[in-house]
From TrEMBL:
Pfam families: Plug, TonB_dep_Rec_b-barrel
A single GO BP: iron ion transport
GO CC annotation terms, alphabetical: cell outer membrane
Keywords from the named record: Cell outer membrane, Ion transport, Iron, Iron transport, Membrane, Receptor, Signal, TonB box, Transmembrane, Transmembrane beta strand, Transport
UniProt domain TonB-dependent receptor plug: residue ranges: 56-165
Protein name, entry field: TonB-dependent receptor
Residue span of region Disordered: 397-423
Membership in a protein family: Belongs to the TonB-dependent receptor family.
PANTHER family (UniProt xref): FERRICHROME IRON RECEPTOR-RELATED (PTHR32552), TONB-DEPENDENT OUTER MEMBRANE RECEPTOR (PTHR32552:SF81)
Domain called TonB-dependent receptor-like beta-barrel: residue spans: 277-781
Localisation: Cell outer membrane
Keyword Ion transport: yes
């Protein structure tokens, strides 16, 4: 039977997209013969979301499943792009380190990334937890299937996650010789190649090797370096060795290595907003005073003039051993893994062509070790999963930030006093902060979930988790002047240092902190599901979950008297209450699927990133917002009208708000003025009034969470026709897919200047495919829509807003072969 392309089978508020005539699963999945007999057009999508193989429509939780060939066909070749197919997945990135992967608006604080907190959305590749979201920016490598699970997953997965999990399964070694290759070329000098080969070495040993390479010219032109920046330069390699001496025992050894080395990640001028600074200390006046003019004030001219080196060197890899052994009535699984991450960035932190911050870089190196034991038992009446998980991580970081020749005139108030030369470049030029830090994190968990089939229709499913986490860190900032002398900002200079000036200490202060904390957590969930009819499943879930404690690993903020706030060294755990109901249906003889989900998540002590706004003090650090709520409805529809036509549509409404955040940082329009007294009532009626009073904190209770669109949709359709072309039998096909996201805010404290307009993207493809081949052309962002991916408030509260425009129209062609 000719496989179908871009089929969507929804699973409780998510779409399952299964493609193409080219699809060949390396690991055949069991299919209920009765289903194929009743309707040869019905889709049977097998998932492992609950740590066992079962069809997607039987799983009583919200999940999206995207097959590997659909990822390739639609050009969504990493997690960042995958959000175009899964409406409730939000992924935003300013560079690989500062990447937010959220589900339903929850997961990680939006903004600058700190190593001191956990991810709310876990990323797993072949059961191995990837602790850093930098993995989200790499190409999918020989992927068979991606499952996006929504809601807390602490009773099924080793590392606790409060918002969901992304479970990636790669193609496994086979005892039948097979291979595939793919080549794509397109505009912007796009070149992408993928290949995989698999086969036996003996009757009991099989091997699989895969590679992927992507290169593409950048989308911003830097008039200073006369180079295109924000390019793509990815390489990935994976090897797997399977030893299977019998049907009930197997060992899979895996190793992978991926690297990126692009000139990235720069921004362009987007707009200027008024702050409460004096007019001569706001962006336009400061730029005029230095005769500075940006190359364009239209971000879609795609011009920038950044003068610092840019680099996003990124390496990720590791090895793992997975052992599966059928023991008694169940299966014992052991997953042992080591992974590393090596990050070598260079940034232009002032977002301008001026030398304000001349160097900004925080290279880091990570090692992580994990061990999971899991036992799965299945019977006619009872199934259960019980697991033990251990995790150990160390991250070392060496940071450097240096002030440039234009820093004094830009950052310091003007002065005519010869004894206080604030406008003298030498006042700040060469001032350097060197940071040394490390983080040690250990965690262990015992978890399990039981499924009791009370009747043929009714199943109850409780789960438990006992979790322990310990974090300890060290941070030291040493400040030196242009002559390399260490400076001190205490009343009396410390031994081996000289007394820093008021201006120097207002930008950088030496600091040492060693935050440490640990916590036990006991959580649970309960699911009840009822099969109303053969193809109608209803379910309800309650989960009591948590995100473990955090520590401020990148330095501590200052108090009002300019002393270090050591009380901010640790961040309380999040306490999560999650409620969900869902309905999963199939009709028209299982050719159509409609799924509906409603959810609500309440979080106490939500871990948020706050931003002080200055150049030299700690830019972003963690703090607890009192309460956060996310609620919404998700609906999905798919129809397989015939072998000639398929279509799908997914929609999500997400209402994610700060319910209580009374001491949040203020948005830029309320910052920069003289601070009000601590007990003063802030006046929000006239934001952006030069010289006005500014509150030290703002109450943003009721504001939307950053990065979340209230409305999100995706859709797709394909029509095909059998033909014989060049003596080859196959199908000519035409496909369309697209997505829409409503407006959202790109600042932790919503600002009138960081509102990102909604946008809709449309993609087309057309080609000819047959047995073992597929040739097609494609156009992405076919209507050449101008849209912004992220906006950033420039440090210093000057009113400058910079950003990264989304990809323009791209087009190209792809050739695939398999055997």
């Amino acid at each position: 039977m000719i496989a179908r392309f871009l089929l969507l089978a929804s699973v409780a508020s998510a779409s399952l997209i299964t493609p193409a005539a080219f699809a060949q699963d390396a690991t055949p999945q069991p299919v209920d013969p009765a289903v194929e007999t009743q309707n040869p057009r019905s889709d049977v999508i097998v998932v492992t979301a609950r740590r066992r193989q079962e069809t997607a429509q039987e799983v009583p939780l919200a999940i999206s499943v995207v097959k590997g060939d659909s990822i390739e066909a639609t050009g969504n070749f990493n997690i960042v792009k995958l959000q175009q197919l899964a409406p409730t997945l939000q992924v935003y990135t300013t560079n690989p380190r500062n990447t937010s992967v959220n589900i339903r608006g929850l997961g990680v604080p939006f903004g600058l990334t700190s190593d001191g907190f956990e991810q709310g959305v876990g990323i797993y590749v072949d059961d191995v937890y990837n602790s850093r979201v930098a993995a989200a920016t790499f190409d999918f490598l020989d992927v068979n299937q991606v499952e996006v699970l929504r809601g807390p997953q602490g009773t099924l997965y080793g590392k606790n996650t409060t918002a969901g999990a992304i479970n990636i399964t790669t193609n496994q070694p086979t005892f039948d010789f097979e291979g595939r290759a793919e080549l794509t070329v397109g505009n912007l000098n796009l070149k992408q190649a993928k290949a995989a080969i698999s086969g036996p070495l003996s009757d009991t040993v099989a091997v699989r090797v895969a590679m992927a390479s992507t290169s593409r010219r950048g989308t911003l032109y830097n008039v200073t370096s006369q180079r295109w920046i924000n390019e793509q330069d990815n390489l990935g390699l994976r090897g797997q060795l399977l030893f299977k001496p019998s049907e009930d025992f197997s060992i899979t050894l895996s190793g992978d290595y991926s690297k990126q080395d692009p000139e990235c990640c720069g921004t362009t001028f987007v707009r200027v907003g008024k702050t409460q600074r004096p007019l001569n200390r706001q962006y336009d006046a400061l730029a005029a005073a230095q005769n500075y003019v940006v190359p364009s004030r239209n971000p879609y001219d795609r011009l920038t003039d950044l003068d610092s080196n840019l680099n996003a060197g990124n390496k990720i890899g590791g090895v793992s051993a997975k052992i599966k052994w059928d023991v008694g009535p169940g299966t014992l699984t052991s997953v042992t893994a080591w992974r590393f991450w090596d990050w070598k960035p260079e940034n232009d932190r002032d977002f301008t062509g001026l030398s304000i911050v001349s160097r900004s870089q925080n290279p880091s190196q990570q090692d992580q070790y994990s061990q999971e034991f899991r036992y799965n038992y299945e019977s006619q009446d009872v199934d259960f999963v019980v697991g033990l998980f251990g995790f150990k991580q160390r991250i070392d970081t060496q940071g450097t930030e240096q002030q440039g020749d234009d820093a004094a005139q830009w950052s310091l108030a003007p002065s005519t006093d010869p004894a206080n030369p604030a406008n003298n470049p030498a006042t700040l030029a060469g001032l350097t902060a060197s940071n040394t830090q490390y983080l040690k994190a250990d965690s262990a968990a015992l978890f399990g979930q039981l499924s009791w089939k009370v009747t043929d229709a009714l199943t109850i499913q409780p789960g438990l988790r006992l979790n322990y986490d310990k974090k300890s860190g060290f941070y030291q900032r040493v400040v030196t002047n242009a002559q390399g002398q260490a400076i001190s900002c205490t009343t009396v200079a410390e031994p081996g240092t000289i007394k820093g000036t008021t201006q120097q200490c207002g930008v950088y202060q030496p600091q040492v902190s060693a935050p440490s904390d640990s916590a036990w957590n006991f959580t649970y969930d309960f699911n009840i599901n009822y099969k109303i009819a053969r193809d109608v499943l209803a379910y309800a879930t309650y989960a009591k979950s948590f995100k473990t404690l955090g520590i401020n690993q990148n330095g501590l903020p200052l108090n009002a008297d300019n002393t270090v706030n050591y009380d901010a060294s640790t961040v309380k755990p999040e306490s999560v209450n999650h409620y969900e109901i869902g309905l999963k249906t199939q009709f028209f003889d299982r050719r159509a699927t409609f799924n509906l989900t409603a959810f609500r998540t309440d979080i106490k002590n939500f871990q948020a990133t706050v931003n002080g706004g200055q150049f030299g003090t700690v830019r972003g650090y963690l703090a607890n917002a009192g309460k956060v709520r996310s609620q919404g409805i998700e609906a999905d529809f798919k129809i397989v009208a015939s072998d000639r036509f398929t279509a799908y549509a997914n929609g999500a409404y997400t209402d994610a708000k700060y319910k209580k955040f009374v001491d949040a940082p203020c948005p830029p329009e309320l910052s920069g003025g003289t601070f009000q007294a601590a007990n003063a009532t802030p006046d929000y009626s006239q934001p952006g009034v030069p010289g006005a009073l500014s509150p030290r904190q703002c109450d943003i209770s009721g504001a939307d969470l950053p990065g979340v669109s209230k409305w999100a949709f995706s859709y797709g359709a394909e029509i095909n026709q059998p033909v014989t072309l060049l003596a080859k039998e196959g199908q000519v096909y035409f496909g369309v897919d697209g997505n829409y996201r409503s407006h959202w805010n790109s600042n932790a404290s919503p600002s009138i200047y960081t509102n990102v307009k909604g946008y809709a993207l449309t993609n087309f493809r057309a080609g000819f495919r047959g047995e073992g081949f597929d040739v097609f052309g494609w156009v992405r962002n076919a209507l050449d829509v101008d849209y912004i991916e992220t906006l950033q408030v420039a440090p210093g509260n000057t009113g400058l807003i910079a950003g990264q425009p989304g990809d323009p129209q791209t087009w190209g062609g792809t050739i695939k072969f398999s055997f």
